[in-house]
Write a structure and sequence with these properties.
2 copies of one chain form a homodimer. In chain A, helix 7 (119-148) packs across helix 9. The first copy, chain A, is built from 18 helices and no strands. The model of chain A is unreliable at 1-40 and 399-412 (pLDDT under 50). The first copy, chain A, is mainly alpha-helical. Chain A is 77% helix and 0% strand. Chain A is elongated and about 95 Å long. Chains A, B: Keywords: Ion channel, Ion transport, Membrane, Transmembrane, Transmembrane helix, Transport. Chains A, B: InterPro entries: ALMT. Chains A, B: Belongs to the aromatic acid exporter (TC 2.A.85) family. Chains A, B: It is a multi-pass membrane protein.
């Protein structure tokens, strides 16, 4: 990490004349007017330098690209630094120091561990930490009070076995999915606080005083952290989830169109690979939806926005994406259908794919402006009509091909037909997957409509 | 959590006679010999009790099932409790207390935060914590030394701005995927330690002494934690990953067979859904593979076992599972192929599916005993032959059907044929996906063979 930090602090480290010495020295040498002779030596130092500089410039470029792609990540780094600098003042400045005492350390620690990229993440950790510190601390004080009524040997046994039992049970409960999802961090902090207070209570007499001090510093840490997180360029998990779903829906629409184009034109379409993003974004969707549930109302999203329904939309999209994956592999099958058959079906198939992807695009537009669409039901109807057209094109396929090939009354008829069914297999598969995809698109439409109902999308017309 | 703990401590709470009062009261009331009258009242208390007892018994059953399904989770809870109880002794017992001082708190904290379910997880966190504490603390002492050479105002500026800069840069670097995967926890601890030492250094004179004390306690915490984790019923991420892949491969084989059976027999086969597990286990595979890389040699796995190749095997299996998902939806299509055609193809298809799933089962058996298989290449050859048989069955399909239907010279011939192509679409799709699946199975075979080469599987014959 130290290396990384140095590199990103000086983004252009020594790209040329550094045969002589490690990168840091270069500027010095040039300033001193070093001789040209050294520049022509190709010793191991030069080779090492080249390797290092290549590696360093790769890293710098990568970091630079990462920052340029999403400047919010840079801002997040600065926010953490700022929050820490602010909280450090509690230590440095004497009046504040007298106020919170040596426990100010807990404020620093709180900021470091609960400051997350999204507001939801920080709230989740902050609220978990606050609740777990309160309950864990309270319980520990209670146990300590009971233990203090007994003699010293029993006190040790009671305190130590309570730590053992509580730690075991709470650790086991972390495996429960519902607890894992919402209170995983809280469970850790609960065990931590309970152990620390129970254990330190054995030495420190003023237990309640200590607990109170610790709570106030943790409260300071949490509030500074949340204020910085929410007031300076906040990153909302909810908005991110919303945008991710919209972006994925567009990608799905494009890759569907792309696959069909690729198949019928034979040209590689880059956009045809977009469905892979949809397949791989389950993890992001789930974690964003979990975090979004902790967030207050922001932007167009109310307090109890139905974030879990976004996961349903995501699941419907993934089910569609699996079909596109199969479509993609069937379009790259070794056996290729005769051009004639392809040409016959291409129009209907392209129409169906453009109707399906049109419906997806309309959905993403609806979600973007959070309006329900007037023309969506028409689009779905058109999509279904396009399916019927594909079906009738399929029905008219053998006649037409046979006619054009002039095989109608030929003796070789049967052989050719057999051949043609074999050859048409990938095409038939392709077409039938395309029809399957339109069914899956209907599933996405239903999921989005349900979302629209739950989130009370505005009834006005779509933007098209 | 408190409720959970109580419930799981007494696993059979009041399954029968508890109409009177909430669960906790029952024993008391019975002991006091309470009147029968109360048992027949159906007031709000009774309703509340019923609701609570139903809920409680659900939770208990769920926890019980969870523990019974995987007793290692219960053992993990007990291990954490044990490690904490041991480390607490450092606080309780006076001689030890004098040795490590008030910093013993850090040992407790270390155990709580680095004790993970798998050995790999604990090692990852433990090593990260140790390295980050050393580097962060060392750097902070250095910065502090420089700052102490200046006057007080400058000292404040230097310390505070170094906290700001380092925290920003390290936080940003956490977004780099490679750092995120391996050093995410270390980055947090680095910032934490640096801030704490830099900040507390301003007050505490004996900085080096403090740092040394803290390091020794953290070392105690890490060693207790790792010893308990590795010596008492260790859970190895590596073995878990190995078993997960094997189990998923069996599921894949079963669900392939199940889908084909379901299609041709028309009966629901429960095992046909197994492929869904394969689709959903990417997250587990990735995290287990990351953690396994931290683990020392254990069982049959050497120190540099190629864990990342398991991810490749998993990816190949998922690509196969997507195809089975498409197969599954095509087998539930609305249009059903004529029984005649289905019957004609069923034998070849069932043979192909059993050859494909046989190859998968052989692979899983190979992986289980970590041997390379002698008969695998034969099985793949047989699978390819089965593909050819399916193809020739497809070729002979139209003739046969037409013959049996007696339509060869009929005038309605064309109409029937059109109808039959339309009707045969789902069947053709099904068959062609089945052939595609055999290609994907070859991909899995290749991935496993590469794994076998990297992990040096024993060359002996397979167990069949």
């Amino acid at each position: 990490m130290a290396a990384t930090s140095k590199v990103s602090a000086m983004p252009l480290p020594a790209a040329s004349t550094m045969q002589v010495a490690p990168p840091e020295w270069r500027v010095t040498i040039i300033e001193e007017g070093s001789s040209v002779k050294i520049e022509h030596e190709f010793g191991p130092a030069r080779r090492a330098y080249l390797a290092i500089s290549t590696k360093a410039s790769t890293i710098v470029k990568m970091l630079w690209r990462m920052g340029a792609d999403d400047p919010r990540k840079v801002v997040h780094g600065l926010k953490v630094g700022f929050a820490l600098a602010v909280v450090s003042l509690f230590y440095y400045l004497r009046p504040l120091y007298d106020g919170v005492g040596g426990a100010a350390m807990w404020a620093v620690m709180t900021v470091v561990v609960i400051f997350e990229y999204t507001v939801g993440g920080s709230l989740y950790k902050g609220l978990n930490r606050a609740a777990a510190t309160l309950t864990g601390g309270g319980l520990a004080v209670g146990v300590h009070y009971i233990a203090s009524k007994t003699d010293e040997a029993w006190e040790l046994v009671i305190l130590n076995s309570s730590v053992f039992i509580l730690a075991s049970v709470v650790t086991f409960s972390r495996f429960v999915p519902a607890i894992k999802r919402r209170f995983d961090y809280g469970a850790t902090i609960f065990i931590l606080t309970f152990s620390l207070v129970a254990v330190s209570g054995y030495r420190v007499d003023q237990l309640v005083n200590l607990a109170q001090q610790r709570l106030s510093t943790i409260a300071i840490g949490i509030s500074i952290c949340l204020m910085v997180c929410m007031l300076i360029c906040p990153v909302w998990a909810g908005s991110d989830l919303h945008c991710l779903i919209i972006k994925n829906m567009d990608k799905l629409a494009e890759s569907l169109e792309g696959c069909v184009e690729e198949y019928f034109s034979g040209k590689e379409a880059q956009k045809a690979r977009g469905y892979k993003c949809v397949i791989n974004s389950k993890l992001s969707e789930d974690s964003l939806a979990n975090l979004a549930a902790w967030e207050p109302a922001h932007g167009p999203f109310g307090f109890r926005h139905p974030w879990s329904q976004y996961q349903q939309v995501g699941a419907a999209m993934r089910s569609c994406a699996y079909c596109i994956e199969a479509l993609h592999s069937s379009s790259h099958s070794e056996i290729q259908a005769p051009e004639l058959m392809k040409r016959h079906l291409s129009e209907a198939c392209i129409k169906l794919s453009s109707k399906s992807s049109g419906a997806l695009k309309e959905l993403s537009a609806c979600m973007e402006c959070m309006q329900s669409s007037e023309c969506l039901s028409d689009m779905v109807k058109e999509m279904k009509e396009a399916v019927e057209e594909v079906k009738s094109a399929m029905k008219s396929l053998p006649t037409q091909c046979n006619n054009e090939l002039g095989l109608e009354k030929d003796d070789d008829n049967m052989v050719m037909k057999r051949q043609s069914l074999m050859e048409s297999m990938p095409l038939v598969t392709f077409v039938s997957l395309l029809m399957e995809i339109s069914v899956k698109v209907e599933g996405v439409v239903e999921a989005v409509e349900k979302l629209g109902g739950l989130a009370e999308f505005k009834p006005s017309g779509s933007k098209f």
